[in-house]
Amino acid sequence: MLNLTEEDKAVLAGANGEAAQVAMRIVVKMGELFGAQELLSVSQAHIDSGIYQGQSGLDFVEMLLAKGARVAVPTSMNVVSLDLERWQHNSRVPQSYATPARRLAEAYLKMGAKPTFTCAPYQQKELTPAFGEQIAWAESNAVAFVNSVIGARTNKYGDFFDICLALTGRAPAYGLHLSENRRGQLLIRLKDIPQALLQADAFYQVLGYLVGRLSGNSIPVIEGIPASVTQDQLKALSAGAASSGTIALFHVIGVTPEAPSLEAAFGGNAPLETIEVDMTQLRQARQELSVNPDGSDQPDVIALGSPHFSLMECRQLAELTEGRKIAPGLEFFVATNRAVYHALEQSGLLAKLSAFGANVTQDTCVVVSPLIAPEAKLLMTNSAKYAYYAPGQLNMPVVFGTLAECVDSAVAGRLVRDDTLWEA
Amino acid sequence: MGSLSTTLTILVEGEATGPIIFSREPLSFWGGFDSQTGEVIDRRHDLMGQPLTGKILVLPGSRGSSSGSGVLLEAIRNRTAPAAIITATPDHILALAAMLAQELYERTVPVAVATPEFFEWAASRSGLIITLAQDGSVKTDEELAGKAGI
Fold this sequence. Notes:
heterodimer; A: 4-stranded parallel β-sheet; B: 25% helix; 19% strand
């Protein structure tokens, strides 16, 4: 039985206008479906419904807008289906696609959402909630990061429901909003992993993919990651785990805020299961991230930035590409957000990356926008998330590599791989 | 076949009549169902290539991305959706789409939860025309016509 406050009831009766009434009706029905006892207030929302998937998504948001929709809490936008400022620079984005895609993004801005258009909102200070804050976020990697690394509380909210939560500022009190559902269940223990690999960015991409595969519907607790792990590495872990699995929360002993110790991470309970992860499994997982049945060694598209590249990652890329140039006929995409793009422009890094041949885009990425040539044959990426989705969503074979391998391959025009890290 | 005296839990109300189409495999609507043609397009699914339009889909549930809501909503808009969806466990992704369709298009696909008895009963009855009523009761054509079960 869902108990509503007097205020909830008033919104349901239309006190805050028709759009809030529709949104509250859906929040209440879904709350009943989830078996929630009550609704709770959220302090902010992150919206994924701006990705254009068809006319009905546009119908929905324009219906809300016509009824006077305004977000009730600070609301940020996930990626949308095109680079809103430079989509015309890519001839593969047809007008017939750009028109509804832009209308959709603009409709959310008219409701008061911020034009952030990023899948890594947690890397922008003003968008990042505090520990323990109740929030309503969509986008699987962002949900995994914000729950796990920040310790804010959200379920993995999906398209359309996310905007209903933003318009009401209320969410059903269930799942990861509640302390009792945030305890670890499965222990994943890293065993005999060389120090050099524990420092490597690519390790966290592969580990994320593997953790997602191993965890099923359980909340995993990872033991053996050094405290020196970087934010970008935890981002890779979140994105990999949320792609190959359903993970919305994980704990890392000695690293994430709800896991100062094993006891704390499991809430005093024993793990339901313990799995040891060694080099054999990691090498296997690294191989699984490449799906290249024809064994081609000629990547013609390199795609980086899922989740969106941070300024730090762009700097690493600039160092690796200094004085070099991509091979003719090859395309090199770097997806990021407006905040980073503007920083790149100002610092002169954008010019350096462009000189290398990189096509830096904002607001979107190659999976949700038609940026890649339809005739492209082999994608290479340093992102476990791209690698996971490329065969199905882009219908392309894919090779996973480190950032350095991606750059070396782009320059050589053929696959350049270095197995040293993984051989120990 | 005895008459079926089961009442299903209704998540999204509505009345629907159509032939049963059954699967024991969950289906991801995102990437697994074409909202233009109404057909299953997941090559690994046992209903691959089958049209779902106008049928009463009985399956364990959906799986995968929450973008599945958008695909079902688009199908309801295009009138390519199943007539009703009955899942083994409550499916919030599909229920959300059905709720949104009600708000938007003033028509929907009823979504219900099967009892274990109903699920097994439906397993061997693909093609049989049934009616799911507002109250969650399920009747076969013969029962509706006032005839006794066979």
